[in-house]
Amino acid sequence: MIPTWRLRAAFARRLSDMYGTEVPAYTTLLEVAGQINDEVAGRDPDAGRLGSIDRVTAERHGAIRVGTPAELRQAAQVFAALGMRPVGFYDLRDGDIGAVPVVSTAFRPIDPDELDRNPFRVFTSLLTTGDRRFFDPDLEARLDAFLARRRLFPPELLDLAERAERDHGLDEPAAERFLALAVGAFTLSTEPVDRAWYAELERISAVAADIGGVTTTHVNHLTPRVLDIDALYRQMGERGITMIDRIQGPPRWAGPDVLLRQTSFRALAEPRTFRDPDGRLTRGALRVRFGEVEARGIALTPGGRARYDALMAETDRRTADRPDADRQATARALWERDFPRTETRLAAERLAFFTYHPVTDRPRDGRRPPAALADLLADGWLTAHPLVYEDFLPRSAAGIFHSNLTGDGTRDPRRDGTPFDAHRLSAALDRPVLDPFALYAEQQDRSLRRALSALHADAALRTLDAPTTATTPTTP
């Protein structure tokens, strides 16, 4: 049997190889990221604090887009075969940048050991055809009819995926067939694109056209992880590859790296065959695919995320008041003033998630362990190891989507949007969309209880708060 995690690792490698063939600039991105990771690991003994160099080098996240709940359920079945479950709800329709008529989730492993083996993720977006801010009833009906006629995933692939999920793997011949079909399902099609239909959808949104204007799906981007994203941004530019205007997410500063920083090279004009209204086939180009790169930091608690969101909002206000000001410098100054400068403070103030470990050889002075987490850390009873952020930021995702669009599209703010939340997405998937905060809190709480039990810290155990849970923020 080829176990689930090996299927996942093999799929991620093959998808990366395929995408590098289709988008050569992605191969350059991998080369630069690998060089920088080796350099950082060579000079910084703490480079593996948020994941070993082997994990970071292998790490990828992909992005795909589907048009209907049925297509989303089928995609979920393929990813379930790889041990990937839907985590988090992201609504990209309501941001102040561009028109992106999708809601999204991310399929990924959730067990810490599985994440260490291979943390492959796929950010998966669903087109909201019923949202009247984007689609009138006539266009919705024609779009739904077009989507209903296509089949993204062959029945054989779905049958193998069900087997793999049920049996936690596949035998070697079945695994090989599954991987070939799965990679094929996400390969860019050579089938001609209906020029008039694609152009009609593109006036609404380039994302809508990329989803509903073609008969297949494809990898929209693949993303390696890098340990110094600022160096990568500079070096890609030096190699003549045009990057988007800035790095999305928190600023670079002297304190702890948290959440997620992302950037990408701009979508390239790729040759495609079009079918014109008179039936002739002509050549043209589409700009829909790009190469993204990310730097991951520490997962924040709901309180930490609220602090982050407030600082980002204040950065927006100050930048709007002074358009000539450097956004990174503005954000950095705010972070240095208002965000904890050390991991210890993040842990003590319950602003970030950690796993906790007892210091069993601490010199004994006859005292009992204190009850407060801050005192347990300060007095050397516990050590805290940060949990890497495994998820996404709606604002950053929307920013990168918009940076690679051909235009702003159209959205009628006078109309109401279709209500959508994690519960509705769970119903569409027929699988629960998991709360990332709850996953981090469960891992943290489990480690803390074990550590306190090992120390016989009875008072601390009695005052230990319940796991921190909250609804995933949905506003970009």
UniProtKB/TrEMBL annotation:
<dbReference type="InterPro" id="IPR047869">
    <property type="entry name" value="YdcJ_bac-like"/>
</dbReference>
<keyword id="KW-0560">Oxidoreductase</keyword>
<keyword id="KW-0408">Iron</keyword>
<protein>
    <recommendedName>
        <fullName>2-oxoadipate dioxygenase/decarboxylase</fullName>
        <ecNumber>1.13.11.93</ecNumber>
    </recommendedName>
</protein>
<keyword id="KW-0223">Dioxygenase</keyword>
<dbReference type="Pfam" id="PF07063">
    <property type="entry name" value="HGLS"/>
</dbReference>
<dbReference type="InterPro" id="IPR009770">
    <property type="entry name" value="HGLS"/>
</dbReference>
<comment type="similarity">
    <text>Belongs to the 2-oxoadipate dioxygenase/decarboxylase family.</text>
</comment>
